[in-house]
Specification:
Four copies of one chain form a homotetramer. Helices cover 25% and strands 23% of the residues of chain A. The first copy, chain A, starts with a strand and ends with a helix. Chain A has helices at 42-48, 108-115, 131-145, 169-172, 182-197, 225-234, 255-258, 324-348; strands at 5-6, 11-16, 22-28, 65-69, 71-72, 75-76, 81-86, 151-159, 162-163, 204-211, 239-244, 262-263, 266-267, 275-276, 279-280, 285-291, 300-304, 310-314. In chain A, the strands form six sheets. Chain A has a five-stranded antiparallel β-sheet, with helices on one face. A five-stranded antiparallel β-sheet of chain A has the order 9-8-10-16-11. Chain A has a two-stranded antiparallel sheet with strand order 5-6. Chain A contains eight helices and 18 strands. The interface between B and D is medium-sized, with 14 and 14 residues.
Chain lengths: 350, 350, 350, 350
């Protein structure tokens, strides 16, 4: 009810703050006898870590996942799995300014209004670092999807207004921006460099593609698969828009163009993005998320203090230029969590 | 869990099928002593009804809302409010074809895959008519928001690729498309006529604007206000995309452009769309929904039958050309339901 | 959240008041393709009806269950099933006294304190009549348990301090008190007659026995099967105590007496009542519910009015002498709902 | 859904195993700005610890509560509070026997049936030690109730069939059995000694009394306050029965005896146990829990192995003779959690 849980059967509750003891997730509703070990988290935690591209924030985050409960002799027990990522490297001094001033574009203002006080060190609960717990939970969700052959892959299709022209999935994991187009990737790199020099930041668009998703996932009428995916993706800090399949483009198509003809071999096109009537149709699920530019920039900005008085604010420190590459594994995690949950829900009803 | 409920405290459960006995909603969690009468529903039910624009579907729907429980001497009692809209005019013969064939772009295929059978008369549970129950529930949500001064208004900003150039809110209620731009409205009318002649359908984009929303609504980290709005809006049948504030445009802005400076008089701009860190900031909430063209068209389309064999399908009858005008009160209702729920949630935590 | 729903997957929401339009239940989460027709409800609704024993209340309740949604061609569709029981015979005049005075032992006082006003006609929402919706929902739950061979049977083991000495299940359905002991039943009949002459009412104890329940139902640590059964049974108006297996008697046993030895053929005894660690062990589930005497009696009682002033109150009309026989099908229904829900939950986790 | 969470607004999720890393609770839905420090937990954790009475189990449990999240500068932030109690002293060798054999009266058998394997070290998730997390969460619930003046006190009214004759609340905290009757306490001590010599264990009955509870807590019709209390109390491992107010005794009273007359100064008697129609009436809430004898005894018992073959089993080690004294703070904690949750729920509806 207080909002820190997601999922009905595969239920993830995250907790923790950026500069507190650490971050974690409790997963209630994971079936028993699934192999799970700390090593399983290493790859995705590393993919989320900064430092993939040259000018990235130099903070070193060691995101080692401890399993505090729910696993016995290497197998899940069906009881709550607790994952914990202890915080290191917690210099909170750069955040002292938040004791008085609200950063434009951040949750400082609304947390203060809502709660009367907040853990401003590293943005506390609304820090991008909170997504580390999501990525960890996504690894467990992935274990449920794996035997079904379901694959979830996210990649960058736009960064700093540079759009990919081709999609070569083989490039994604090696690319610093998870970009499937080598030419676009180079231009993105230039855009990042330029923005950094200008003390500015960039937004972008990520696409998520799910292959081998079985038909029949999703529940009418409010827990439609697309509705739950939209909630999951929009709940990630920097996301300002979500679309499924043809998305906003569908608004400009005619019915005769937008309908996907059905053939004995499946759907001829996939404007629906793999979901019809809120239920997966067996085709690829495709969604896109609009990611706003990171609000932390080194330029002077107008703001107010806690008493509502006008103030100027200039953040110091080194910031990411864009959330886009780091958000990729987070979006994958959220999509996996939604699918694992809906898969388990579908089993209850057979 | 099975998906037909929405909201945590103000909890709406809808039920019913298009051509069954009727449609309805049970609202659990509405505070007591709020005035509520059948007349309160008349205006919004009428706004949802077809027939606003010339070529609209001629089916006459009488959407009279009966209050089956939860109101005594004209006041809510704090116990479940049941709203029921009895179906009339239920000629199900045009749907006999669905006994064998799946309509492209509809939920026929996925409902059959998921449930093994489904009420195909009038598309049963996934009929656009299901939204009548949402609109009815939205009226009750509106009663909770009213004393706060919160106003929710939706309108059409694009239809058939025709975009509004100006927004004059005074025009909206009188316009057949809920369009705030008289010039655009005329061109929309022409586009609708043309599409109808071509046995085709059109999509569009609706915008919702919430004024006077108090700061502090929304819960970290999964039940963010924008995440819940995204789910609510995406759960409406024809919606394929949702964006908040600058939305997808934010992906192309720089941080210095996208951040809304804060002044003693409020936010200087509103690219955030009234939500920061998932919590309302007191500014206007703005969201947009991409609406796909109605999949029911009079043209021949490729499909398969229940045995998976190729087939041609040509729907007869008269269909709406676009969901856009009729979806307007539905979007308003969903936004009201989200806000009423989050408002009550916020009260529990003070 | 507002308390009118029960169950996680098989989710029952009841609504309605005793003297309003009617009572009903929405069941979300019932699997598809289960045969369901209005006739299926007739037997249990009749069993709940007054008039089984001679001096019972002469009000004639016609409890015909209408299916308003969720069934197509005689089969459930997997979407919400709405059951509705329209009220008849609604002479509310005897309740006019409740406009001012609170009946001792009833919810009048607390409903007024909580909600500021309440539907006092026939006790509105907290009327015993509310259980009609539970019995109807229990019929649907029974349909899920039937193919598993699970049987749920309740019967009276004590009424007016008269305890059964033998349990002959063959007698139960024919007995006016659902009593499995013919001798005790006669004495119960005398006790009822005597109490009625004295304008008084009687309590009793009901036992519920579940046979063929599969092992493995129940979830640690809060949704234990016994915990959910306790909640379900205690939520029935007149129940003041619940015990499982040896129950309160277990408090007086030693471990060596209370432990049920395990053998290759099953448990040698069943003091656990079929549940260990909150999970069904495959043995019979046995629980008992203490039912208080009906608070409506024809004697003068001390009370206060809405302004808190002392008053005398004497109810007129004819009342049931005991809730015990009529509560039997209600307890069965609640136990069925709990088991159906936990059965579906267990399927999600396999 | 998987059962490890309790509460709707004040939502407690417990995790952890007896001999794993530790045990803990995540509390989502605690209001912000409530003072909370590790010291706050010391008293109740100590009260739950073994060693209050002479022959108690000599294991030394150090139950220091760490706050892993949700508190900043000594005040709750409104975000999830994570409490963690790291396990010490974890000699799991005595439990090796559980690799093959099921202990009568324990959850070994049902956990194995349900999950296929389980963490048998120290009984893992269904260990009595799990209640440490509940006690910790209860401390936070108590912080919400404190400003209202609500007091929750539990005490032993029966142990080894010895019933208290008087209730002197001043004795409770000093008494090794939380017993409010000094004479009975001595006899309980003898009974404990005797049972220990006989390698046996004892059950008992605990009573919980809530003073200053405001009227109006509890929600019709399934989340009645008594129903939620019954679930909460029955969810504690050893509890086999729950009763409110007159409880099972009410089954033997007449309406004229059981009804509590209402006067301008409140209720003349309190057979209702402070709850009418499922809603608190402002009077003291009184409930009792039947606690079975601890199933771990040093005598040889019949059981089967994992392959279903007959076996004899004799547990070694030192066991508690009775759960009763240690369960006292656990019952208090559960009642506090229920009340805190319903109090916050009631605030949402005003």
């Amino acid at each position: 009810m207080a909002g820190n849980s997601f999922g009905e059967i595969f239920r993830v509750t995250t907790f923790g703050e950026s500069h507190g003891e650490g971050l974690g997730a409790v997963i209630d509703g994971c079936p028993s006898r699934i192999g799970l070990a700390p090593e399983d988290f290493v790859r995705d935690m590393a993919r989320r870590r900064p430092g993939r591209y040259s000018f990235d924030t130099p903070r070193k985050e060691e995101d080692r996942v401890e399993i505090l409960s729910g696993v016995f002799t290497g197998l899940t027990t069906g009881t709550p799995i607790t994952l914990f990522i202890r915080n290191k490297d917690v210099d909170s001094r750069p955040y002292e300014i938040l004791r008085q001033l609200f950063r434009p574009g951040h949750g400082d203002y609304t947390y203060f209004k809502k709660y009367g006080h907040f853990d401003f060190r590293g943005a506390g609960r609304y820090s991008a670092r909170e997504t580390a717990a999501r990525v960890a939970a996504g690894v467990v969700a992935g274990k449920i999807l794996e035997p079904l052959g379901v694959k979830v892959a996210a990649y960058t299709i736009e960064l700093g207004a540079i759009r990919v022209r081709t999609i070569n999935m083989d490039l994604v994991e090696k690319d610093p921006f998870y970009c499937p187009d080598a030419v676009a990737s180079e231009r993105m790199d230039e855009a990042i460099s330029k923005a950094r020099k200008e003390d500015d930041s960039l937004g972008g668009i990520a696409e998520v593609r799910v292959t081998n998703c079985p038909a029949g996932l999703g529940e009418p009428v409010f827990d439609k698969l697309d509705a739950d995916l939209a909630r999951a993706v929009m709940s990630v800090g920097a996301v300002k828009g979500v679309e499924i399949g043809a998305g906003f483009e569908a608004a400009r198509l005619k019915g005769s163009e937008n309908n996907d003809p059905i053939t004995p071999d499946g759907f001829k096109t996939n404007r629906a993005g793999g979901i019809l009537g809120g239920i997966s149709n067996g085709d690829e699920i495709i969604l896109r998320a609009a990611v706003k530019p990171i609000p932390s920039i080194g330029r002077e900005q107008d703001t107010v203090d806690r008493q509502g008085r006008a103030a100027k604010m200039k953040l110091t420190g080194r910031f990411d230029v864009s959330a886009v590459p780091r958000i990729i594994p987070v979006l994958e995690a959220m999509v996996k969590i939604v699918l694992a949950d809906h898969y388990l829900r579908s089993k209850a009803m057979v």
